[in-house]
Amino acid sequence: MAQRSVGTVLQIGANSVAGLTSIGGLELSAETIDVTTLASNGGYREFIGGFKDGGEVSVSGFFEPGDTNGQMAMYTAFQAGTTDAYSIIFPAGLGATWTFNGVVTGFSTSVDLEEAVTFEATIKVSGAPSLGITASGGLTALSLTATGGTLSPAFSGTNYSYSFGGVSAATATITATAASHTLKLYVDGVYTQDLTSGSASAAITLTLNKGRKLTIIAYETGKAAKVYEVVVIKTT
Q1: Are residue 63 and residue 126 in the same domain, yes or no?
Q2: Are 136 and 218 in contact (CB under 8 A)?
Q3: 122 & 228 share domain
Q4: Distance separating alpha carbons of residues 191 and 96, to the nearest angstrom
Q5: What is the CATH number of the domain that holds 160?
Q6: 120 is in which domain, residue-wise?
Q7: pLDDT tens per residue, the chain (236 residues)?
Q8: Which residues contact 170 (CB under 8 A, 6 or more apart)?
Q9: CB of 13 closer than 8 Å to CB of 59
């Protein structure tokens, strides 16, 4: 069944790249080696496989220079010429994740009248990429602690988007449970900490009438990651 692309995440290292509207690639290809001889059957050329190429990943979106761990990390990688670890995590319904090493070979910004400032970048894949198509088991429980807050809808392992409204406290904590997983917490797209399954996170500061997006990415060895998001809103 077809799935919407909304919710797809590109990571450099452990951090998500903010503001993306398009992620292109990967573009796998393979060379061939001509092994035709005078004895080749029927006058047809014969080939064997040669080197493979992971191609490129092109990304574009809205320019956010404040995204120091995402967009600016890609800019820094371009300047330094480093090879870094990347992941493309598709929506959980697909249960698929690309992981690969890559070198940033292009980074640009663009300004047009009556349009938002945009950026584009290109990542050259280095070595063999890996496509994980077995979905992680994901979370078995998710809860938040803050005076007045209510998680909506009630937690289900197959639902990946929640709100936590009516909060009156100045801070909140989030607790995620998943056996044999690595759990990474992002606040407004910025990596904050690794979570311990079943234990509360560090306190997250809230601002009146301003939502904070909490993202938990659940990694399980050899399987596609799952992404859960909670928008926390302090109303009093």
Answers
A1: yes
A2: yes
A3: no
A4: 21
A5: 2.60.40.10
A6: 9-132
A7: 777 888 888 999 878 898 999 999 899 999 999 999 999 988 899 999 999 999 999 999 999 999 988 999 999 999 999 999 999 988 877 778 899 999 999 999 999 998 999 999 999 999 999 988 887 888 999 999 888 788 899 998 888 889 998 888 889 999 999 988 999 998 887 888 999 999 999 999 998 888 898 989 898 877 888 889 899 988 88
A8: 205, 206, 234
A9: no
Residues 88 and 156 in one domain: no
Q: Note if the bond before 139 is cis, omega within 30 degrees.
A: no
Structure tokens at 130: 């890996």
Question: 196 and 179 in contact (C-beta within 8 Å)?
Answer: no
Q: What are phi and psi of 79, to 5 degrees?
A: -65, -35
Q: What is the largest CA-CA distance in the chain?
A: 84
Which token pair is 8?
């797809």
pTM of the model: 0.73
pLDDT for residue 7: 82
Q: What is the DSSP string of the chain?
A: -----TT-EEEETTEEPPSEEEEE----EEEEEE---TT-GGG---EEEEEEE--EEEEEEE--TT-TTTHHHHHHHHHHT-EEEEEEE--TTT--EEEEEEEEEEEEEE--TTS--EEEEEEEEEEEEEEE-SBP---SEEEEE-TT-EEES---TT--EEEEEEE-SSEEEEEEE-TT-EEEEEETTEEEEEEPTTSBPPPEE-BBTB-EEEEEEEE-TTSB-EEEEEEEEE--
Contact by Cβ (8 Å): 102, 86? yes
- 86 and 146 housed in the same domain: no
pLDDT at residue 132, as a whole number: 84
